[in-house]
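Reopening: structure tokens for the adenosine-5'-diphosphate complex, inputs below.
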Amino acid sequence: MTDAVTRFTELALSPALLDALAANNFVEMTPVQSAALPLMLRGSDVIAQAKTGSGKTLAFALALAQQLDTDSLAPQALVLCPTRELADQVADVIRSTVSRLGNVRVQTLCGGMPMGAQISALKHGAHVIVGTPGRIMDHILKRRLALGELKTLVLDEADRMLDMGFADEMDVIIEHTPTLRQTLLFSATYPASVKQMSARVQRQPHSVVVETLH
Ligand code: ADP
Ligand code: MG
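Re-run output (same inputs, fresh job):
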């Protein structure tokens, strides 16, 4: 391909998102970003396999940010992560990505954290939810979190989530999301369990496999 997109400015991103990228000195896309972002920004489901450190977080942060309606405080994007540490890192990347979009609330919901603060935050509302499957399922089943307005679902480190035994929680959560949604699945490895999850939850996904880091 001679016309591969390699710089963020070549993408169909809003000025506010391009401003945030420039402020963070993100100019050239990493290989997984340049392969996956044009597909994700078109609204396609994508399954992306790339090594740790290849820039997958910024890729899905931009994809979900582009879909946000800041006027609605119903959750529009949900990112499922295997651990609290990862969820905190992902939430920071999303906050920095959306920093010029106006007032965007990004709420983490992780196990091992106090319930009270999460419950009051959910009453207030959030545009983006990031968290671990057990706690998010709990909030859904107790009717504190409704995902009827969700546009983007991200399964980050899907291989690790499945290894940790979160498949049932993930299925319950996904049952509570609209059928018409964009589902983005990220994984460092591509075992049968990840392929099966993709087949269950994605529609005609485009597969992106990147071997190199930079
Ligand atoms: P992954 O999820 O694929 O393991 P991360 O999303 O955590 O990787 O990104 C790894 C590092 O790469 C982060 O420090 C991030 O800031 C940096 N990074 C991401 N995209 C770019 C880019 N286009 N240019 C420079 N650095 C980037
Ligand atoms: Mg990652």
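The domain at 8-208 is CATH 3.40.50.300 (Rossmann fold). The chain has nine helices and seven strands. Marking as resolved unless the reporter disagrees.
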